[in-house]
Amino acid sequence: MLTPEEKEKALLSLLKSYTNLAVAYSGGVDSTYLADCAHEALGEQASIIIADSPSLPRSELAEAIELAKERCWNLHIIYPKEYENPAYLANQGDRCFHCKDALFNQMKHYMKQHPNTILAFGAIEDDKSDIRPGALAAENHNAVAPLQEVNLFKSEIRQLSLHRGLPTAEKASFACLGSRFPKGTPITLDKLSQVEKAEEILRTHGYKQYRVRHHNEICRIELEPNDFSKLINERELIIKEIKKIGYRYVTLDINGYSSGSTT
Fold it and tell me: Taking the model in full, what pTM does it have?
């Protein structure tokens, strides 16, 4: 069984074999690690592509762009406009597919100006145990998943990211804002903005792992259980701030933070 360091060595070798690569970058743990490795392996031949989308909070976008500049990556910003697709807005269980499909379509427009470039995204070994509609979109666009090809797990990527001095090594898990809506609840730009503002309130109060689940008038907050007491102590202030952005009720889900939970 290979060590994380041996897997990284295999990853760098694999990335070099691609010659020209366009990496889908979001600022998350996995795509940041992949982007850094691609830059090491290919230099300017690794194009790091980030999507400016309403489903990505402005604070996340700004941090991701700043990191790319600090690391001297060959960064490009694209605008996939997934929200122009009624199937994405309908949110009938295939939202992630339509979102990623728009992303890869826009990346292909970039690739027309850069022939012989391969698309890559940050899927990892852990993802194989989940249903990932976005992976189907990636497959449809012949995108490769180098981290999966060398069998890297999230815990290993965090460890290797720490060795590389990447600030994302201990970053909390994040998913696009569209994931905050229960299946069947239509998505609008105004609702995405409302969720973003509510989560920004939690971020500025020092919470690290959180979700705001949107249920029309209800803002359902998910936190790690060890943050419950902090929220209770700040209850009046946070309720006041969140109600200002349009929610009528503010609730704490005592089940705690759960990735992918919208029910």
Answer: 0.92
